[in-house]
Design brief:
eight-stranded mixed sheet, 16 strands, 10 helices, 395 residues, alpha/beta, 35% helix, four-stranded antiparallel sheet
């Protein structure tokens, strides 16, 4: 494609089948590292498009389109969440308690569409380089399936890599971009607290785990807020606190669980060490036993300038400058960060909100993305792939 015209001539005919493919994925979600049917559906669809995909270890797949050295990698994540769907869609999840509540079915469908469009461009003799499309498992399971992609060597020949993520705060038809960190570091924390239980009338004869837990819950965020540069925005938020079964009995065991998030990758390491020490120091006066499980998650995704420019150039060519918004850094974590530590890369935010419609949130059972976003994602990522090849040819 020497003229770098719009890729819509290659993508438009694919859209009805892509919508059907996405709905089938949505109806049959699978959790991290258990995406067996999902992987088979991806493989079948790629083979039907004249491609020769390769299955990854256990779950996930990748496919190379074109000849010569790889010029760009594109990544989609394929797993679902342990969330109960509450949409009442005709194609809502058929698996109780599992749903594509983060939009990974959209991500997978977009990258399938890109691969199929690139195959058509190749067959027309217009693809003068190689693109690798990776369908990655287990983004939702820390520290993330991206590490398995790297361990299997799938980035060894890839000079740069792009990804996308659904964003229900942005209208369908638009994307969000930014240079630098676009997501945050994210860890999970589970603290089990044990001690001698007893009657609430005699707490001095017990090791009051409930009081100790309350101190941990409130003081750990406060300690980090005074020990870490506030500009790094370290945030510890508890999602679970469980202990006891009677109002007049101090229990012998309980636990807290939550997340620690941080905007700055370097401060992330420092904050993790401070957190572990703070938990034990806060609990020490109460004589309780602490079992701390601090699971290091992912660093921030850092968008490189050239790769962000590649996305924005493709978006302008396909949809015009008005389709691009500056997006704020998210406090969410994304294991695509491991890939951007390996090679230069960038992630775009794909708008999924129906214009004038409801703003949903991710990881909720009522999340309904506007399927018109699929065309947007396919065209921008396909155009970026074509441009990445052209840039090398021009050097």
């Amino acid at each position: 494609m020497g003229s770098l015209g719009s890729v819509d001539v290659w993508t438009t005919s694919l859209l009805p089948a892509l919508i059907n493919f996405r709905r089938e994925l949505h109806r049959n979600p699978e959790l991290s590292f258990a995406e067996y049917q999902t992987t088979e559906r991806i493989l079948e669809a790629l083979r039907a498009g004249g491609l020769e995909p390769v299955k990854m270890q256990d779950t996930g797949a990748y496919v190379d389109i074109g000849e010569g050295p790889i010029r760009l990698g594109l990544r989609a994540d394929i797993d679902a969440l342990p969330v109960l769907e509450e949409t009442d869609l005709d194609y809502s999840s058929s698996i109780e308690g599992v749903a594509h509540a983060c939009g990974h079915d959209i991500h997978t469908t977009v990258m399938l569409g890109v691969a199929l469009a690139l195959a058509k461009i190749r067959d027309a003799g217009e693809l003068h380089g190689k693109i690798r499309v990776i369908f990655q498992p287990a983004e939702e399971k820390l520290p993330g399936g991206a590490l398995s992609v790297i361990e299997q060597g799938l980035l060894e020949e890839v000079p740069r890599v792009l990804a996308l993520h659904c964003d229900p705060r942005i209208d369908a038809g638009k994307i969000g971009t930014r240079i630098g960190a676009i997501t945050s570091a994210s860890d999970t924390i589970r603290i089990e607290v044990n001690g001698r239980g007893g009657h609430t009338s005699r707490p001095h004869l017990t090791e009051d785990i409930v009081f100790a837990m309350s101190q941990i819950a409130t003081q750990v965020p406060a300690v980090l807020g005074r020990k870490v540069d506030v500009r790094s925005a370290v945030s510890v938020v508890w999602g679970q606190i469980h202990a006891g079964s009677a109002p007049n009995a101090i229990p012998a065991t309980g636990y807290l669980a939550g997340t620690m998030r941080c905007l700055d990758g370097d401060i992330w390491y420092e904050a993790g060490e401070l957190l572990d020490a703070a938990v034990r120091q806060i609990a020490a006066p109460y004589g309780v036993e602490i079992k701390l499980q601090h699971t290091r998650g992912v660093p921030p995704v850092v968008n490189a300038p050239d790769e962000t420019a590649l996305i924005e150039s493709a978006a302008r060519r396909e949809f015009g400058s008005d389709a691009i918004e500056l997006t704020p850094q998210s406090m969410g974590g994304e294991d695509f960060a491991w890939m951007t530590q390996k090679v230069p890369g960038a992630m775009l935010r794909l708008g999924t909100r129906t214009p004038g419609g409801k703003t949903f949130d991710l990881h909720r059972g009522d999340y309904i993305p506007d399927e018109r976003c699929i065309e947007v994602g396919v065209r921008i990522m396909c155009a970026a792939a074509v441009q990445a090849i052209a840039e090398v040819d021009a050097d």
